[in-house]
Amino acid sequence: MTMHSTLQRAFANRCVLKVISGLNNFDAASVAATVKAAEFGGATFVDIAADSSLVQLAKNLTNLPVCVSAVEPDKFVQAVAAGADLIEIGNFDSFYAQGRRFEAEEVLALTKQTRVLLPEITLSVTVPHILELDRQVELAEELVKAGADIIQTEGGTSSNPVHPGTLGLIEKAAPTLAAAYEISRAVTVPVLCASGISSVTAPLAIAAGAAGVGVGSAINQLNNEVAMIAAVRGLVEALATATVLSEK
User: Fold this and answer.
1) Residues 6+ apart with CB under 8 A from 77
2) Confidence at residue 158, expressed as pLDDT on a 0 to 100 scale
3) In angstroms, rounded to a whole number, what is the distance separating the alpha carbons of residues 201 and 186?
4) What is the C-alpha radius of gyration for the chain, rounded to an integer number of angstroms?
5) Among 146, 153, 203, 156, which residue's Cα sits nearest to residue 182?
6) 46, 21 in Cβ contact below 8 A?
7) How far apart are alpha carbons 66 and 45 in whole angstroms?
8) What is the pLDDT of residue 148?
9) Are 34 and 69 in contact (CB under 8 A)?
10) Where does the source fall among the domains of life (predicted)?
């Protein structure tokens, strides 16, 4: 596996920001707005649905590495042929509201199937937050053995903050932060902390052991391009501060 040089540097420096448009978001205008915000805001890479036309759209809008997400391995093949730089099994959050669960055995099977189809592409795999924390750690270790190059955590959809403001943002991120802390100490590959992350909690993710964060709704649900770019820049600055502090 050869990781994109931009990603290698960012993971080594533990300052990765992945901007997510959504695994089930096939709206070209929405995806374009998110990709532009990532580009102008200084993100590390973008994560879009595994769709060839969206990959081509993103490639025309940015020089950032383009990741595609899916839960069906076959979808990755065409997306990679269209120019995707890396792939992600996961971003499961959009499925939970439908009652769709992803258990450890299925995620591991998807990873193995994907590796057979695409043995060389950089592969990120999400560990489902519905699993007990110790089982999340076990699964992460199994996924790395099966060929995962990056492990992503999640948990924002299961969190129900009871406080407003900063305290609420920390409560929202608690499940994915806990997973990042435990998993980062068990695997040798980079851990990306996603789902429920904000500029407040991005530095906490780095302190917990993550090499970066993935952020979706905090950016793509904003209603104008200027606000989206500002949100990305705020996250980039938060990560830069966290990296400086971790080096002291």
Assistant:
1) 117, 118
2) 67
3) 22
4) 16
5) 153
6) yes
7) 6
8) 98
9) no
10) Bacteria
Tell me the CA distances in angstroms from 26 to 68, 184, 203, 214, one per residue in order. 12, 32, 31, 19
- The pLDDT of 231-248, averaged and rounded, is 80
pLDDT digits (tens, 9 = 90+) for 98-153: 889 999 999 999 999 999 999 999 999 999 999 999 999 999 999 999 999 999 99
- Report pLDDT digits (tens) over 52-91: 999 999 999 999 999 999 999 999 999 999 999 999 999 8
How far is residue 67's CA from residue 79's CA, in Å, rounded to a whole number? 9
Distances (CA, A) of 194 to 128, 138, 155, 186, 199: 11, 19, 8, 18, 12
- What's the N-to-C CA distance of the chain in angstroms? 32
pTM of the model: 0.94
Residue at token pair 């949100």: 231
Beta-bridge mates of residue 212: 16, 192
DSSP secondary structure, the chain, as one string: ----HHHHHHHHHT-EEEEE--TT---HHHHHHHHHHHHHHT-SEEEEES-HHHHHHHHHH--S-EEEEESSHHHHHHHHHTT-SEEEE--THHHHTTT----HHHHHHHHHHHHHH-SSSEEEEEPPTTS-HHHHHHHHHHHHHTT-SEEEE--GGG----S-HHHHHHHHHHHHHHHHHHHHTT-SS-EEEESS--TTTHHHHHHHT-SEEEE-HHHHTSSSHHHHHHHHHHHHHHHHHHHHHHH-
